[in-house]
Specification:
With 216 residues, the protein is mainly α. It has a single domain, classed as Lysozyme, CATH 1.10.530.10. 51% of the residues lie in helices and 0% in strands. The chain is built from nine helices and no strands. Helix 6 packs across helix 7 and helix 7 packs across helix 9. About 27% of the residues have low confidence.
């Protein structure tokens, strides 16, 4: 009888443990690369990636946040009459073509190239950003394929990414530049303001200064 009771108690223990394990939360899977916004959901549906990649499909709460961007300079896009300013470079025609393709002011693209790489197509940053527009390989691969150091491929991919930021933030140039530098999630985290990161603040100021100089 005692042996039977012992076996019964052991069996009951395993039944209880199995039930507890079945009811425990499952380990979250890593988000697909286009779900950079997963950390904004409550609770998040998956573990976010460390690299922020923009998505064209923003969830409703984020769209609500972006419905009233702060008043600032707004990009009017590209015009066939827009002349590219500043000292002439061998990449001006590429910048014009890519800007036309993605409806971005070529002077803004040129200003980004100037600050990002100083027109060095082989530039590599300390964190691994590459090429004229200093794209992370993961971001580059989400936009296009080919050689990240090829000037035309890099500039067109960077211009497309910049166009995404302009679209996301209602054409607000400063917020788009901040998102290009720090990621759109950082701008949203700071309530659609430039994140208070010294690098990002300086970056936006520098690009904006060249942009106005080229546009004059």
């Amino acid at each position: 009888m005692d042996g039977f009771m012992s076996r019964l108690l052991v069996f009951g223990f395993f039944v209880v443990m199995a039930g507890a394990l079945a009811s425990s939360p499952s380990v979250q899977q890593q988000c697909p690369s286009n779900q950079w916004f997963s950390t904004l959901s409550n609770p998040p549906s998956c573990q976010p990636l460390t690299t922020i990649i923009v998505s064209d499909n923003l969830p409703a709460p984020v769209n609500t946040q972006l419905s009233t961007p702060p008043s600032s300079e707004v990009s009017n896009g590209y015009s066939s009459n827009t002349a590219i300013g500043g000292s002439s470079t061998q990449y001006d025609s590429i910048i014009q073509d890519c800007a036309s393709q993605f409806n971005v002011d070529p002077n803004l693209v040129k200003a980004v190239v100037r600050v990002e790489s100083d027109f060095n197509p082989n530039a590599v940053s300390s964190v691994g950003a590459e090429g004229l527009m200093q794209l992370m390989p993961s971001t580059f691969n989400s936009l296009t394929s080919g050689d990240i150091f090829d000037p035309r491929t890099n500039v067109c991919a960077g211009t497309e990414y910049l166009a995404q930021q302009l679209s996301t933030f209602g054409g607000n140039v400063e917020l788009a530049l901040a998102a290009y530098n720090a990621g759109p999630g950082a701008v949203i985290k700071y309530n659609n303001q430039i994140p208070n990161y010294p690098e990002t603040v300086n970056y936006v100021s520098s690009v904006d200064s060249y942009y106005h100089s080229y546009s004059a």
